[in-house]
Every structure is written in structure tokens, then in C-alpha cells.
Amino acid sequence: MANESGGGDQKTGLAAKIAFLQRPDSYPGQPTAVEVKETHMSWVFLTGAHAYKLKKPVRQIFLDFSTIEARRLNCEREVALNRRLAPDVYLGILPLTVDMEGRLHLGGPGRPIDWLVQMRRLPAEQTLEHAIMTNQVQEADVRRVADRLAGFYRSAAHVHIGPREYRRRFEEDVRINRRELTRPLFRLPVEAVAELATAQLTFLATHGDLLEGRALAGKIVEGHGDLRPEHVYLGPQPVVMDCIEFNREFRIQDPADELAYLAMECDRLGAPLINDWIFGTYGDRTNDRVPQSLIDFYKCYRAYLRAKIAIWHLDEPEVRDTLKWTQRADDYLRLAREYSKRYA
Smallest Cα–Cα separation from 277: which of 125, 155, 150, 133? Predict the structure, then answer.
């Protein structure tokens, strides 16, 4: 991974940008406080009514935020793509500027030195994740989400991908995931990790026609890419945020795969009934009845992938909680084992 200081001198470098954006007086209306959240690839600054996302100046195999122009383009892409499922939330992008006196401004005069996505802030209490964690999940709310997603997939851009290529993509990913999960640094149970990879590869060898059939039927679309309960906001008009904007390949998916990913995360949080509500509504709306064995495979694959993403936190130079991420990876591997037994 490569990165930059953010450009400029001490007054306009990365640390100066973050310090400026943490100050309430940097924002219109001067909110009373600014809450800061850090993710793998960005910082999010939360005021009373809005959220502002600043992308980290990083470059990895699957993304490039290393220049100001790259970050601007990705901000524009994030707004455009997320307006598909959250049209009233993503308000636009704002420049972070520096004037002739070296003072920083958000959307003010001067030379742009970075860019931020501006969003309307939604209450965390409206997320599907919060509803699950507080035992307040209502079937009607979940079915509205599934109905919204079914309509989205029906209107999404379809992507042609050859049946064998689609199956091979999973085979390659499973091997990559196994290699990462068995790295000595992570100290995960190597035998169990290898067995899960074998179970997935065996399914692909013996039931790969199910995946090939999805590609042949033209089911592959440009979807969301990161469909998790924390990104789903419930209500009369459900909203789904935070799609993957930085790599189109990650959005090229079977709707059944995306929905299985969401259902898997709901399983992990203790709400297995959501699976039937999601796939029942999706099937009714689209007449696309997905075989349960394929759903279980997709769930297993996603849990295995999420285990890798969780354990990757141990690679970070200043990882704050190694036990948290090791336990999270173990949880995903446990789920993957359960799913693999269902389709064995």
C-alpha cells in the first residue's frame, strides 16, 4: 500500500486537514460538536445534520486514492452510484480549499487541496443492524427493503459474463482467501480454513452448473457490492447506502449473491428469519427462485471472504484491538462451516 502526506506543507498536509475537519467552526452553521469515525479508506466527520467523508490518500491493488484528482473522481463516482438506492442522502461533493493566507475552508475560496462527499446524516437507530441488535426487527420493514432491492436489480445494468468465467472467478477467489487466511501472522486454525476452501471448491466442481446457469440466464448485474445491515436504513422508503464505488468489478454480482451476503450478516447478528423474508419477497417480485443450495454456497463464500477482511486488520500498523478482529474472523469461519454442511 502506498500513500501520501496529503500534499502541501504543515498547514495543508493530511494531519492539518483532519484537525481542521474536527473543528465545529469549520462547518456551515457551526455545529456544537463533530464526531469522527475512521474506516479502512476514509474518515467520516459527523455534524448534527450532515456527514462529510474524506478519502484517505492510499493506493492498493484494488483502488487508488493517492492523488487529489483521483479522490475527486472517486467522490463524484460515490455520489452518482449511491444515488441509485439513496437518492436524497448523497448531496454532492465539496472542495477543501486553502486561501492565499494559508487558511483552510470547506467549500470556500482558494485552491482545492482535497475533496469530500457531503451526505445527509441519517439516525443510526434506523439501520437494520440496530433493529436486529435491539430485537425490534419487523417483517414488514425487511420485506420493504427486499422489495426495494428487487426493483433495483430489475433496473440495474446487466453485465455479460461467460458462464465458465463466472465460475472461475469464485474458484480463484476461494484460493486467494485461503492463502490469506492461512498466513502465520493471523494464527487462525489452518486445517479448518483449508477444509472450508475444499468444501467451496468441491461445490464449484460438482454444482458449478448452478453458477453457470445464473450467468447464462443474464442474472449478473452492476449492483451495490457491500450489502450489510449497517448500510440499510428502514422505513416507509428504505435507503441503502455505502455501495462500493472504487472498483466496478466488486459491484458485478448475482443479486442472489448480494442478498445472501445481507442474509449471512443478519445470521451473524442473530436474525436468521430475515433470510426467508428477503428471498421470499425477492422471488415474488422477480419470479427468480434461487435454489437453497446456491444461497448456502453464496453465504459460505461471503462468510469466508469476510473472515479474511476481518483478520486483515491485524496487518494495520496501529491495530487497536487484535482480539476483536480475531474473534470476528472466527465468527465468520464458524458461519462458513455451518453453511458448507448444508450444501455438502
Answer: 150
Residue range 164-206, pLDDT digits in tens: 999 999 999 999 999 999 999 999 999 999 999 999 999 999 9
Half-sphere exposure of residue 112: CA atoms within 13 angstroms, side-chain side = 12
The residues near 233 (Cβ < 8 Å, ≥ 6 apart) are: 122, 126, 127, 128, 239, 240, 241
Dist. CA 289–CA 255, nearest whole Å? 12
For the chain, which domains are there? 2-121 (3.30.200), 128-343 (3.90.1200.10)
pTM for the model stands at 0.92
Q: pLDDT by residue (tens digit) across 125-134?
A: 999 999 999 9
Residue-wise over 265-292: b if at least 16 C-beta within 10 A, else e? bbbbbebeebbebbbebbeebbebebee
Residue 42, beta-bridge partner list:
55
Phi first, then psi, for residue 46 (nearest 5°) are: -105, 120
Contact 259, 227 (CB under 8 A): yes
